[in-house]
From TrEMBL:
Belongs to the chromate ion transporter (CHR) (TC 2.A.51) family. Its main location: membrane. The lineage of its organism: Bacteria, Bacillati, Bacillota, Bacilli, Bacillales. InterPro entries: Chr_Tranpt_l_chain (IPR014047), Chromate_transpt (IPR003370). Keywords: Cell membrane, Membrane, Transmembrane, Transmembrane helix. It is found in: Cell membrane. This is Chromate transporter. GO terms for molecular function: chromate transmembrane transporter activity.
Length: 412
């Protein structure tokens, strides 16, 4: 299913950087919408992975703590061009919002742009993107009565119990149901194409071990540094202060299940009581984060910038994403072989159907409930969906149309 790569490793990396940067500039709407953008660009258009491999990668990232959409992007880059490819894919997708939020920290502190008409238009774009992704994934991953039932049940459960841990429990239960229904049957799931992971299991195990070592040792080092005369206050530029910043954001990135919004209370407890960022600055930055494309975890860039300037922004950004990178690089070498087992394929048939249901629930809440507030909003969403599904227009045109369309509606 992989399209032919450009000649030479450099050409592959440049292509990956350009594509991921385009996604970083246009992927509005949060992690669920990002998966829709990824599906359109990486799977539908470029066919870098087959539908089943993409769904399996999404399922794996749902299990892992951290920003699921960023991990999916890293995983695709890793399979496309090795470790450097994973890093390039992450840089391309993440850097635009990092730069934008650093500029917000410099120029728009305390500004309220969350209610702007063009921001609302981007929320409507996200509705169309996710609806289009659900339509395509549902046809592939929930084509029969059993899997369609799993998808509907997953959507109902997700809506009635919208917590991160409930989502993990849902995926586990769907896997068990899939194992029971499909482990002895042939042809029930889409045939899994080989998932090429250019990373050894030994290196994968090293990454998983490093993740745990950092998670355990950083708080101990921070405590030891503080007891030796350091402080948690940021601004003097000392090693103890930078270590405290790195520890806070690394732990926040390591303990989050369920996507970017779940990290907000963790970050608030880390940065507000310590005095690094005021409560007002925290809320202003959160509003700004909703206005930019890319992963919500780049909120850390804003907080780091407020706490300790550019150095703080760099440290906070690396720290909060490092667990995601270590976990996906560590897990993929084992996942690529496990997914070919008949029993694992049966479990994944259930998990993949549940992922469709989770996306369906997310289409309603938070996307639909925050974007479709009037008949005109629904009309614009229908037009944008048609542009994607029937007119096959590029997503960036849909993004621009959504923003300008909502601006025009706001003048009527």
């Amino acid at each position: 299913m992989h399209t032919k790569k450009p000649k030479g490793r450099l050409g592959t990396l440049i292509e990956l950087l350009l594509v991921s940067t385009k996604l970083g500039l246009t992927s509005f709407g949060g992690p669920i919408a990002h998966l829709g953008y990824f599906h359109h660009e990486y799977i539908r258009r470029r066919k870098w992975l087959d539908e089943r491999s993409y769904a399996d990668l999404v399922a794996l990232c749902q299990f892992l703590p951290g920003p699921a959409s960023s991990q999916v992007g890293i995983g695709i880059g890793l399979m496309r061009a090795g470790l450097l490819g994973g890093l390039v894919a992450w840089i391309g997708f993440t850097l635009p919002s990092v730069i934008a939020l650093i500029l917000f920290a410099l120029l728009l502190q305390g500004g309220d742009i969350a209610g702007a008409d063009w921001i609302h238009g981007l929320k409507i774009v996200a509705v169309a993107i996710v609806a289009h992704a659900i339509m395509g994934m549902g046809q592939k991953l929930a084509p029969d009565r059993n899997r369609a039932t799993i998808a509907v049940a997953a959507a109902v459960f997700s809506l009635l119990s919208p917590s991160a841990w409930s989502q993990v429990l849902l995926i586990v239960c769907a896997g068990l149901i899939g194992l029971w229904l499909y482990h002895r049957q042939n042809g029930t799931a889409v045939e899994a194409a080989p998932m090429e992971v250019p990373v050894s299991r030994k290196f994968g195990a090293f990454c998983l071990a490093l993740f745990l070592v950092l998670l355990i040792s950083l708080p101990l080092l921070r405590q030891w540094t503080s007891a030796s005369g350091g402080a948690d206050g940021i601004g003097s530029g000392g090693g103890g202060e930078i270590l405290a910043l790195f520890d806070s954001f690394y732990r926040s990135g390591s303990l989050v299940f369920g996507g970017g919004h779940v990290v907000l209370p963790l970050l608030e407890r880390e940065v507000v009581p310590t005095g690094w960022v005021s409560s007002e600055q925290f809320l202003a930055g959160y509003g700004a984060t909703q206005a930019v494309p890319g992963p919500l975890f780049t909120f850390a860039s804003y907080l780091g910038m407020m706490a300790d300037g550019v150095l703080g922004a760099v440290v906070a950004t690396i720290a909060i994403f490092l667990p995601a990178f270590l976990l996906i690089v560590g897990a993929l070498p084992f996942w690529s072989s496990l997914r070919t087992s008949p029993k694992v394929q049966g479990a994944l048939a259930g998990v993949n159907a549940a992922v469709v249901g989770i996306l369906l629930a997310a289409l309603y809440n938070p996307l639909w409930t925050t974007a479709i507030l009037a008949p005109a909003d629904f009309a614009l969403a229908a037009v944008l969906f048609g542009m994607l599904a029937f007119w096959k227009l590029p997503p960036w045109i849909v993004v621009v149309t959504g923003a300008l369309g909502c601006l025009l509606l706001g003048q009527l």
